[in-house]
Give the backbone structure.
Amino acid sequence: MSVQVTLSLPNNLFEHARNLGNATRRDTAEVLADALEMMWPTLPDSPASNLPGVSSLSDDDVLALADMKMDETQNSRLGDLQTKGKQAALSEVERFELLSLLQIYQLGQLRKSEALAEAVRRGLRASLSS
């Protein structure tokens, strides 16, 4: 589910997002949404930085979070950039996009690992060391 929002951005910020979109063959709005998604959890007092502790989630929510995967489009682009980076130098725009996608991935993995640990603690999943 998504919501359409109208923003007033400084010209240079919009141009940078548009250039990144053009270089990656993505819509400018998509580029901006990814940037917000990446940065939101790092902002003080943001709802994303104050996500409920995994221990306060229901069993179903813990299991859903433990099974969470990165968005398919983002994951595919991350793989493409990693492959290209191994074969040739990435452009500045591609490096920024790669770092953004890695940030999204790392935050997701952190949350997922917390949920997996909670699932084991509650007896919803077997311990990997068993």
